[in-house]
Amino acid sequence: MFNYENQINPFTSLFRGRAMNRAPTIFLGLMGFVVSSRPMNKETTQIVEKLLASPQKIVIVGHKNPDGDAVGSCLGLSFFLKSLGHNATVIMPNDFPDFLKWMPRCEEIGIYEKEVQKSTEIVNASDIIFTLDFNSLDRVGDFEGVLKAASAKFVMIDHHQQPADYAVATYSDVKMSSTSEMVYHFMDALGEADKLSKEIAINLYTGIMTDTGSFRFSSSSPTTHRVAAKLIEAGAESAIINQKVYDTNSPERMKLLGVALNNLVILPEMHTAYITMTQKELDDHNFKKGDTEGFVNYALSVKGVVFAAIFIENKQESIVKISLRSKGDFSVNDFARNHYSGGGHINAAGGKSSQDLNNTINEFISILPRYKNELTDAL
Ligand SMILES: [Mn+2]
Known about the structure:
Layout: H1 4-7, H2 10-13, H3 17-22, E1 27-28, E2 32-33, H4 42-51, E3 57-61, H5 68-83, E4 87-92, E5 110-111, H6 116-124, E6 128-132, H7 144-149, E7 153-158, E8 169-172, H8 179-189, H9 198-211, H10 222-233, H11 238-246, H12 251-262, E9 265-267, E10 272-277, H13 279-284, H14 295-300, E11 307-314, E12 319-326, H15 332-339, E13 343-344, E14 348-353, H16 357-367, H17 372-377
Parallel strand pairs: 3-4, 3-6, 4-5, 6-7, 7-8, 10-11
Antiparallel strand pairs: 1-2, 9-10, 11-12, 12-14, 13-14
Protein backbone atom coordinates (compact mmCIF):
# COMPACT_ATOMS: atom_id res chain seq x y z
CA MET A 1 0.00 0.00 0.00
CA PHE A 2 1.27 3.42 -0.89
CA ASN A 3 2.00 5.36 2.25
CA TYR A 4 1.48 9.04 1.68
CA GLU A 5 2.86 9.89 5.09
CA ASN A 6 6.29 8.55 4.17
CA GLN A 7 6.57 10.54 0.98
CA ILE A 8 5.95 14.04 2.20
CA ASN A 9 8.52 16.62 3.07
CA PRO A 10 9.78 16.05 6.61
CA PHE A 11 9.28 19.69 7.51
CA THR A 12 5.60 19.55 6.60
CA SER A 13 5.15 16.18 8.20
CA LEU A 14 5.90 17.65 11.58
CA PHE A 15 2.57 19.40 11.49
CA ARG A 16 0.35 16.56 10.45
CA GLY A 17 -0.60 13.05 11.37
CA ARG A 18 0.51 11.31 14.51
CA ALA A 19 3.33 13.62 15.43
CA MET A 20 0.87 16.45 15.66
CA ASN A 21 -1.63 14.47 17.71
CA ARG A 22 0.96 13.29 20.15
CA ALA A 23 2.76 16.49 20.93
CA PRO A 24 3.49 19.66 19.11
CA THR A 25 6.98 19.60 17.69
CA ILE A 26 8.72 22.89 17.39
CA PHE A 27 10.97 23.77 14.51
CA LEU A 28 13.71 26.03 15.72
CA GLY A 29 15.08 27.84 12.73
CA LEU A 30 17.26 26.27 10.07
CA MET A 31 20.02 24.84 12.20
CA GLY A 32 18.40 22.53 14.66
CA PHE A 33 15.44 20.75 16.13
CA VAL A 34 14.52 20.31 19.67
CA VAL A 35 13.48 16.69 19.80
CA SER A 36 10.01 17.76 20.76
CA SER A 37 8.42 20.17 23.13
CA ARG A 38 7.60 18.31 26.32
CA PRO A 39 5.83 15.08 25.38
CA MET A 40 5.51 14.62 29.14
CA ASN A 41 2.76 17.04 30.16
CA LYS A 42 3.24 20.02 32.41
CA GLU A 43 1.28 18.66 35.34
CA THR A 44 3.22 15.39 35.49
CA THR A 45 6.48 17.30 35.02
CA GLN A 46 5.67 19.57 37.96
CA ILE A 47 4.82 16.64 40.24
CA VAL A 48 8.10 14.94 39.31
CA GLU A 49 10.08 18.16 39.79
CA LYS A 50 8.66 18.45 43.29
CA LEU A 51 9.43 14.84 44.11
CA LEU A 52 13.02 15.25 42.93
CA ALA A 53 13.62 18.67 44.48
CA SER A 54 15.95 17.23 47.13
CA PRO A 55 18.13 14.07 47.09
CA GLN A 56 15.92 10.95 47.26
CA LYS A 57 16.36 7.23 47.74
CA ILE A 58 14.94 5.80 44.55
CA VAL A 59 14.22 2.27 43.39
CA ILE A 60 13.58 1.61 39.70
CA VAL A 61 11.67 -1.53 38.78
CA GLY A 62 11.09 -3.18 35.40
CA HIS A 63 8.66 -5.98 34.55
CA LYS A 64 9.13 -9.70 35.06
CA ASN A 65 11.21 -11.34 32.32
CA PRO A 66 12.86 -8.00 31.51
CA ASP A 67 13.47 -7.28 27.83
CA GLY A 68 15.84 -4.81 26.18
CA ASP A 69 13.47 -1.92 26.74
CA ALA A 70 12.94 -2.72 30.42
CA VAL A 71 16.67 -3.07 31.10
CA GLY A 72 17.66 -0.11 28.92
CA SER A 73 15.05 2.28 30.29
CA CYS A 74 15.70 1.33 33.94
CA LEU A 75 19.49 1.59 33.66
CA GLY A 76 19.29 4.80 31.63
CA LEU A 77 16.95 6.41 34.15
CA SER A 78 19.10 5.27 37.08
CA PHE A 79 22.24 6.93 35.68
CA PHE A 80 20.25 10.08 34.95
CA LEU A 81 18.82 10.23 38.49
CA LYS A 82 22.30 9.63 39.93
CA SER A 83 23.63 12.51 37.86
CA LEU A 84 21.02 14.70 39.59
CA GLY A 85 22.37 13.65 42.99
CA HIS A 86 19.86 10.96 43.92
CA ASN A 87 20.53 7.48 45.17
CA ALA A 88 19.07 5.12 42.56
CA THR A 89 18.96 1.32 42.46
CA VAL A 90 17.51 -0.85 39.70
CA ILE A 91 15.77 -4.02 40.87
CA MET A 92 14.26 -6.50 38.39
CA PRO A 93 11.77 -9.18 39.50
CA ASN A 94 13.91 -11.89 37.86
CA ASP A 95 17.01 -12.20 35.74
CA PHE A 96 17.34 -10.71 32.25
CA PRO A 97 18.57 -12.60 29.17
CA ASP A 98 22.23 -13.20 28.37
CA PHE A 99 22.10 -11.23 25.10
CA LEU A 100 21.65 -8.07 27.21
CA LYS A 101 24.41 -8.84 29.69
CA TRP A 102 26.88 -6.49 27.99
CA MET A 103 24.76 -3.38 28.62
CA PRO A 104 26.67 -0.61 30.42
CA ARG A 105 26.79 -1.29 34.19
CA CYS A 106 24.06 -3.94 33.98
CA GLU A 107 25.94 -5.83 36.72
CA GLU A 108 24.58 -3.20 39.13
CA ILE A 109 21.02 -4.46 38.62
CA GLY A 110 19.57 -6.22 41.64
CA ILE A 111 17.48 -9.34 40.98
CA TYR A 112 14.60 -9.75 43.45
CA GLU A 113 14.28 -13.51 42.88
CA LYS A 114 17.95 -14.02 43.81
CA GLU A 115 18.09 -11.57 46.73
CA VAL A 116 14.62 -11.39 48.24
CA GLN A 117 15.59 -9.96 51.59
CA LYS A 118 18.09 -7.39 50.34
CA SER A 119 15.66 -6.22 47.64
CA THR A 120 12.82 -5.94 50.16
CA GLU A 121 14.98 -3.85 52.49
CA ILE A 122 16.00 -1.48 49.69
CA VAL A 123 12.36 -1.05 48.63
CA ASN A 124 11.23 -0.47 52.21
CA ALA A 125 13.88 2.21 52.70
CA SER A 126 13.05 4.02 49.46
CA ASP A 127 11.29 7.38 49.08
CA ILE A 128 10.27 6.92 45.44
CA ILE A 129 9.69 3.85 43.28
CA PHE A 130 9.78 4.30 39.51
CA THR A 131 8.01 1.51 37.63
CA LEU A 132 9.09 1.28 34.01
CA ASP A 133 7.76 -0.50 30.94
CA PHE A 134 4.70 -2.07 32.55
CA ASN A 135 1.16 -0.93 33.27
CA SER A 136 0.06 -2.86 36.35
CA LEU A 137 1.80 -4.03 39.51
CA ASP A 138 0.93 -7.67 38.83
CA ARG A 139 3.49 -7.60 35.99
CA VAL A 140 6.31 -8.02 38.52
CA GLY A 141 5.35 -11.52 39.73
CA ASP A 142 6.23 -12.31 43.34
CA PHE A 143 7.78 -8.85 43.77
CA GLU A 144 4.25 -7.37 43.73
CA GLY A 145 3.57 -7.84 47.45
CA VAL A 146 6.78 -6.04 48.40
CA LEU A 147 5.96 -3.09 46.16
CA LYS A 148 2.38 -2.90 47.41
CA ALA A 149 3.54 -2.82 51.02
CA ALA A 150 6.05 -0.04 50.37
CA SER A 151 5.40 3.44 51.72
CA ALA A 152 7.27 5.10 48.85
CA LYS A 153 5.54 7.22 46.23
CA PHE A 154 5.24 5.67 42.77
CA VAL A 155 6.08 7.18 39.41
CA MET A 156 5.11 5.26 36.27
CA ILE A 157 6.78 5.61 32.89
CA ASP A 158 5.21 3.25 30.38
CA HIS A 159 3.79 2.80 26.89
CA HIS A 160 1.39 -0.15 27.38
CA GLN A 161 -2.39 0.13 27.06
CA GLN A 162 -4.64 0.83 30.04
CA PRO A 163 -2.23 1.96 32.77
CA ALA A 164 -3.30 1.14 36.33
CA ASP A 165 -3.76 4.01 38.75
CA TYR A 166 -1.19 3.52 41.51
CA ALA A 167 1.31 6.30 40.85
CA VAL A 168 1.40 9.92 42.02
CA ALA A 169 2.87 10.74 38.61
CA THR A 170 1.87 8.67 35.59
CA TYR A 171 3.71 9.32 32.35
CA SER A 172 1.88 6.92 30.06
CA ASP A 173 1.80 7.19 26.27
CA VAL A 174 0.72 4.20 24.20
CA LYS A 175 1.94 5.85 21.00
CA MET A 176 5.54 5.83 22.19
CA SER A 177 7.94 3.37 20.57
CA SER A 178 9.41 2.32 23.88
CA THR A 179 9.83 3.25 27.50
CA SER A 180 13.47 4.00 26.69
CA GLU A 181 12.36 6.74 24.29
CA MET A 182 10.12 8.08 27.07
CA VAL A 183 13.05 8.25 29.49
CA TYR A 184 14.73 10.61 27.03
CA HIS A 185 11.56 12.75 26.90
CA PHE A 186 11.41 12.60 30.69
CA MET A 187 14.93 14.05 30.91
CA ASP A 188 14.04 16.62 28.27
CA ALA A 189 10.85 17.68 30.08
CA LEU A 190 12.84 18.26 33.25
CA GLY A 191 15.19 20.49 31.24
CA GLU A 192 18.07 18.07 31.82
CA ALA A 193 18.66 16.58 28.37
CA ASP A 194 22.26 17.75 28.61
CA LYS A 195 22.83 15.08 31.26
CA LEU A 196 22.74 12.51 28.46
CA SER A 197 25.96 10.51 28.92
CA LYS A 198 27.36 7.78 26.70
CA GLU A 199 26.19 5.15 29.19
CA ILE A 200 22.65 6.51 29.25
CA ALA A 201 22.65 6.80 25.45
CA ILE A 202 23.74 3.19 24.87
CA ASN A 203 21.12 1.87 27.29
CA LEU A 204 18.28 3.94 25.84
CA TYR A 205 19.30 3.17 22.25
CA THR A 206 19.30 -0.55 23.01
CA GLY A 207 15.81 -0.25 24.50
CA ILE A 208 14.41 1.67 21.53
CA MET A 209 16.09 -0.60 19.00
CA THR A 210 14.84 -3.84 20.57
CA ASP A 211 11.27 -2.57 21.14
CA THR A 212 10.90 -1.31 17.57
CA GLY A 213 12.42 -4.34 15.83
CA SER A 214 15.31 -2.11 14.77
CA PHE A 215 13.00 0.77 13.83
CA ARG A 216 10.76 -1.41 11.66
CA PHE A 217 7.46 -1.13 13.55
CA SER A 218 4.96 1.67 12.99
CA SER A 219 5.58 2.86 16.54
CA SER A 220 8.90 4.34 15.29
CA SER A 221 7.80 7.92 14.79
CA PRO A 222 9.81 10.81 13.39
CA THR A 223 10.38 11.77 17.02
CA THR A 224 11.73 8.28 17.77
CA HIS A 225 14.32 8.76 15.03
CA ARG A 226 15.20 12.22 16.33
CA VAL A 227 15.76 10.78 19.81
CA ALA A 228 17.84 7.97 18.28
CA ALA A 229 19.95 10.61 16.51
CA LYS A 230 20.58 12.37 19.82
CA LEU A 231 21.59 9.06 21.39
CA ILE A 232 23.99 8.27 18.54
CA GLU A 233 25.51 11.74 18.88
CA ALA A 234 25.97 11.05 22.58
CA GLY A 235 27.96 7.91 21.84
CA ALA A 236 25.56 5.05 21.15
CA GLU A 237 27.12 3.20 18.21
CA SER A 238 24.27 1.65 16.28
CA ALA A 239 26.24 -0.99 14.38
CA ILE A 240 27.99 -2.23 17.51
CA ILE A 241 24.77 -2.32 19.54
CA ASN A 242 23.04 -4.25 16.74
CA GLN A 243 25.86 -6.81 16.69
CA LYS A 244 25.90 -7.21 20.44
CA VAL A 245 22.15 -7.77 20.61
CA TYR A 246 21.45 -9.75 17.46
CA ASP A 247 24.61 -11.64 16.48
CA THR A 248 24.61 -13.80 19.58
CA ASN A 249 22.78 -16.90 18.43
CA SER A 250 23.92 -20.22 19.85
CA PRO A 251 24.02 -23.15 17.40
CA GLU A 252 21.23 -24.78 19.47
CA ARG A 253 19.01 -21.73 19.04
CA MET A 254 19.47 -21.77 15.27
CA LYS A 255 18.55 -25.48 15.19
CA LEU A 256 15.51 -24.71 17.37
CA LEU A 257 14.50 -22.00 14.90
CA GLY A 258 14.65 -24.69 12.21
CA VAL A 259 12.21 -26.80 14.23
CA ALA A 260 9.94 -23.78 14.76
CA LEU A 261 9.86 -22.97 11.04
CA ASN A 262 9.17 -26.60 10.26
CA ASN A 263 6.17 -26.45 12.62
CA LEU A 264 4.80 -23.30 10.98
CA VAL A 265 1.14 -23.61 9.96
CA ILE A 266 -0.43 -21.08 7.60
CA LEU A 267 -4.18 -20.51 7.44
CA PRO A 268 -4.48 -18.37 4.30
CA GLU A 269 -8.27 -17.91 4.65
CA MET A 270 -7.73 -16.30 8.06
CA HIS A 271 -4.55 -14.40 7.09
CA THR A 272 -3.04 -16.15 10.08
CA ALA A 273 0.09 -18.20 10.74
CA TYR A 274 1.17 -19.96 13.90
CA ILE A 275 4.07 -21.92 15.30
CA THR A 276 4.01 -24.58 18.00
CA MET A 277 6.88 -25.70 20.22
CA THR A 278 6.60 -28.73 22.48
CA GLN A 279 8.54 -29.09 25.70
CA LYS A 280 10.40 -32.03 24.15
CA GLU A 281 11.52 -29.92 21.19
CA LEU A 282 12.81 -27.29 23.60
CA ASP A 283 14.58 -29.88 25.76
CA ASP A 284 16.17 -31.57 22.73
CA HIS A 285 17.79 -28.24 21.83
CA ASN A 286 19.12 -27.34 25.24
CA PHE A 287 16.54 -24.52 25.47
CA LYS A 288 17.58 -21.44 27.37
CA LYS A 289 15.28 -18.62 28.33
CA GLY A 290 14.94 -16.18 25.48
CA ASP A 291 15.84 -18.72 22.77
CA THR A 292 12.36 -18.51 21.21
CA GLU A 293 12.34 -14.71 21.35
CA GLY A 294 11.39 -13.33 17.94
CA PHE A 295 10.40 -16.67 16.38
CA VAL A 296 6.82 -15.45 16.06
CA ASN A 297 7.98 -12.66 13.76
CA TYR A 298 8.92 -15.25 11.12
CA ALA A 299 5.27 -16.34 11.05
CA LEU A 300 4.21 -12.71 10.63
CA SER A 301 6.68 -12.26 7.76
CA VAL A 302 4.75 -14.69 5.54
CA LYS A 303 3.15 -12.84 2.63
CA GLY A 304 -0.54 -12.13 3.25
CA VAL A 305 -0.37 -12.93 6.95
CA VAL A 306 -1.60 -10.20 9.32
CA PHE A 307 -1.89 -12.28 12.51
CA ALA A 308 0.82 -14.55 13.89
CA ALA A 309 1.04 -16.63 17.03
CA ILE A 310 3.53 -18.91 18.73
CA PHE A 311 2.41 -21.48 21.29
CA ILE A 312 5.15 -22.73 23.58
CA GLU A 313 4.55 -25.62 25.92
CA ASN A 314 5.80 -25.10 29.47
CA LYS A 315 5.45 -28.38 31.37
CA GLN A 316 6.93 -26.95 34.55
CA GLU A 317 4.23 -24.30 34.91
CA SER A 318 1.57 -26.53 33.22
CA ILE A 319 0.74 -23.78 30.78
CA VAL A 320 1.16 -22.90 27.15
CA LYS A 321 2.83 -19.53 26.71
CA ILE A 322 1.48 -17.53 23.82
CA SER A 323 2.97 -14.61 21.89
CA LEU A 324 0.87 -12.77 19.37
CA ARG A 325 1.84 -10.34 16.63
CA SER A 326 -0.19 -8.50 14.03
CA LYS A 327 -0.03 -5.95 11.26
CA GLY A 328 -2.30 -2.97 10.76
CA ASP A 329 -5.49 -2.53 12.76
CA PHE A 330 -5.92 -6.06 14.07
CA SER A 331 -5.50 -5.74 17.84
CA VAL A 332 -3.67 -8.65 19.43
CA ASN A 333 -3.95 -6.73 22.70
CA ASP A 334 -7.73 -7.30 22.55
CA PHE A 335 -7.28 -10.88 21.38
CA ALA A 336 -4.89 -11.68 24.25
CA ARG A 337 -7.19 -10.02 26.80
CA ASN A 338 -10.29 -11.81 25.50
CA HIS A 339 -8.85 -15.30 25.21
CA TYR A 340 -5.52 -15.68 27.00
CA SER A 341 -5.68 -13.55 30.17
CA GLY A 342 -2.92 -11.41 28.75
CA GLY A 343 -2.46 -8.19 26.86
CA GLY A 344 0.16 -5.82 25.52
CA HIS A 345 0.13 -3.52 22.53
CA ILE A 346 -2.10 -3.42 19.48
CA ASN A 347 0.50 -5.25 17.32
CA ALA A 348 2.36 -7.25 19.98
CA ALA A 349 0.86 -9.02 22.97
CA GLY A 350 1.16 -12.15 25.02
CA GLY A 351 -0.82 -14.46 27.24
CA LYS A 352 -1.16 -18.03 28.38
CA SER A 353 -3.48 -21.01 28.28
CA SER A 354 -3.91 -23.60 31.02
CA GLN A 355 -5.11 -26.22 28.53
CA ASP A 356 -2.63 -28.60 26.91
CA LEU A 357 -0.94 -27.67 23.64
CA ASN A 358 -3.34 -29.60 21.38
CA ASN A 359 -6.47 -28.21 22.97
CA THR A 360 -5.00 -24.72 22.95
CA ILE A 361 -4.39 -24.97 19.20
CA ASN A 362 -7.81 -26.47 18.50
CA GLU A 363 -9.45 -23.69 20.45
CA PHE A 364 -7.36 -21.05 18.65
CA ILE A 365 -8.43 -22.41 15.26
CA SER A 366 -12.08 -22.50 16.36
CA ILE A 367 -12.00 -18.87 17.56
CA LEU A 368 -10.49 -17.42 14.37
CA PRO A 369 -13.62 -17.40 12.16
CA ARG A 370 -15.18 -14.86 14.54
CA TYR A 371 -12.40 -12.48 13.56
CA LYS A 372 -12.44 -13.22 9.86
CA ASN A 373 -13.72 -9.79 8.82
CA GLU A 374 -11.27 -7.94 11.04
CA LEU A 375 -8.41 -10.10 9.78
CA THR A 376 -9.40 -9.53 6.18
CA ASP A 377 -9.70 -5.75 6.67
CA ALA A 378 -6.64 -5.29 8.86
CA LEU A 379 -4.45 -3.83 6.16
MN1 LIG B 1 8.62 -1.54 26.08
